[in-house]
Amino acid sequence: MAAVLACGPEAVLSHSSAAALWRIGVEERDAIEVSVRSRHQRRRPGLRIYRRPSLWPEDHTACHGIPVTTPTQTLVDLALRLDRRGIERAINEADKYDLVHPPDLRRALDERSGEPGVVRLREVLDRRTFRLTRAELERRFLPLAREAGLPVPLTGQWLNGFEVDFHWPDLGLVVETDGLRYHRTPAEQARDRLRDQAHTAAGLTQLRFTHEQVRYEPGYVREILAQTASRLAIATK
Predict the structure, then answer these.
(1) What are 162-214's pLDDT values in tens digits?
(2) Are 65 and 50 in contact, with CB atoms under 8 Å apart?
(3) CATH class, range 134-235
(4) Where do the domains of the chain lie?
(5) Strand ordering across the sheet containing 173-178
(6) Maximum CA pair distance of the chain?
(7) Cβ proximity of 198 and 161 under 8 Å
(8) DSSP-assigned letter for residue 170
(9) What's the pLDDT tens digit per position in 18-56?
(10) Torsion angle of alpha carbons 135, 140, 146, 152, nearest 10°?
(11) DSSP-assigned states of every residue in 22-43
């Protein structure tokens, strides 16, 4: 609060200092970071001041009485200084604390085209929240299973009261794939747990991959499938 007050009535906490206030944990900075709309602001010891005439009133709010950039604006500001994992961690924290949920964040970014940081943030969100169609999922996943040494699976089968994506009856293996990694509803999460418990109780081995892994990390998916198939083949002999 002292840092903001020292910079005048239009000052707000921003960047990593705003992230710390919102509890969306990023690295500590040596100086407290403050943004001001004025073009003229003299230096102050211990503060890093950003002159931002384009910072709109809707881009800042208050937290514990301290003027600060909104969670959305804070994430946009951080996107230019964090790597992909750092951005994902910040988004997850914002989601966990109900500051801004990924679908809402994605919509907000559509209104901020051209703003620094938006492109990187959108890339991370799009990679994590896209969903493959059933046809494309099978087109991408089935070759990975074949290369891992697995036979052709049954698809879209009902098992233990649930429809499963891929099933190998002879191995007792089920593979489920998840889209929309971010912000699955409590009802969806509860159903996933029931599904997993039902398959485990029936003695099945279940693997769960995200659509992102199938699309962007095929080597990892193939390796896990191969290791699992090898273990199950030995166990069923």
Answers:
(1) 999 999 999 999 999 887 665 566 777 788 889 999 999 999 999 999 888 99
(2) no
(3) alpha beta
(4) 2-129, 134-235
(5) 154-159, 162-168, 173-178, 205-210
(6) 77
(7) yes
(8) T
(9) 999 999 976 667 789 999 987 766 778 889 999 998 888
(10) -10
(11) HT------SSEEEEES-S----
